[in-house]
Amino acid sequence: MKLTVNGAPRELDDATTLARLLDDQPARGVAAAVDGEVVPRAEWAGFRLAEGQAVEVLTAVQGG
Amino acid sequence: MSDDPFVIAGVEFPSRLILGTGGAPSMRVVDEVIAASGTAMCTVAMRRISPGTSGSLIDVLERRGVRILPNTAGCRTAQEAVRTAELAREALSTDWVKLEVVADERTLLPDAVELLDAAETLVAQGFTVLPYTNDDPVLARRLQQAGCVAVMPLGSPIGSGLGILNPHNIELIVAEARVPVILDAGIGTASDAALAMELGCAAVLLASSVTRAQHPAAMATAVAAAVTAGRLARLAGRIPKRHHAQASSPTEGMAVL
Asked: Angle at the Cα of B142 (from B98 to B200), degrees rounded to 5?
């Protein structure tokens, strides 16, 4: 299935969870939203992604 | 405990200088300016993670023991700002947020309508909201009424270094504020920070004036001293301004020469 992750197209296996997509991310300091809605980290494992969804993955960077 | 405590939402801070981490050329400089400034709270922005993103910013801030204040920089609408605050809360485990909703890239001036809308929504969601606002006493009042725990008026546009363009408005905001007033944006050098404190601000939030100085750590030391000096001067009570001179030497007892 095709999704968008941080603005870039991504091809993923069907029924991939958010936890699977983000398994290489650090254990803290990262948050994700799917189609604009925040998904708490505790729900990543059970969150199944669907065709066409837009995933945003954010972290803290330097800023005023 | 200090005899002149600086408290936001029940949390006491040992420094009245809040440091933005934006603009520093390296993580080493971030570390140096935190140490030199003695700050107890630093702002961060929330951005898309990239393969090159290092996790070291949070590590540096935690090692220095400073509180992390995420901002909503770059957001143009209340909805964007609220979602960014929600993501920051999730990523950083804090419900504190420096709320920024700006109107355009050229001025980076707050959009008053979107700002107030976002503030009301975030307060209702349980966030501890510190809004970056215009130097507008009426908007500052409305933000307090909305439940913000501080108001953070600009001295001049973000990154401009123009100092405090309307000191009278800052005084008006301070005069009626029931929450800490934090001068946020526009500081160019140490004397601007001192003036903010002399006008009665509870604290100063600055980034570029330190992080983009030729010698960032030295400027961090300078602005920290200025914040302390300005606060002491405010508490000491300055003399009124006069149109004419007033001799400080005795006018009696002059010899006839």
From this structure: 70
DSSP conformation class of B151: B
**How confident is the model at residue A13, as a pLDDT?**
86
3-class DSSP state for residue B96?
strand
What length is written for chain A?
A: 64
Alpha helix locations (H) across chain B? 27-37, 56-64, 78-92, 112-124, 137-145, 167-176, 190-198, 208-211, 216-236
ipTM score: 0.91
Backbone angles phi, psi at B253, to 5 degrees: 80, 20
- State how far residue B4 is from chain A, nearest Cα, in angstroms: 26
Q: Are B113 and B131 in contact (CB under 8 A)?
A: no
Active site (catalytic) residues of B:
98
User: What are B59-114's pLDDT values in tens digits?
Assistant: 899 999 999 999 999 999 999 999 999 999 999 999 999 999 999 999 999 999 99
Q: Does A41 touch chain B (CB under 8 A)?
A: yes
Q: What is the pLDDT of residue A27?
A: 72
Is residue B15 within 8 A of residue B39, CB to CB? The reply is: yes
Per-residue pLDDT at B246 exceeds 80? yes
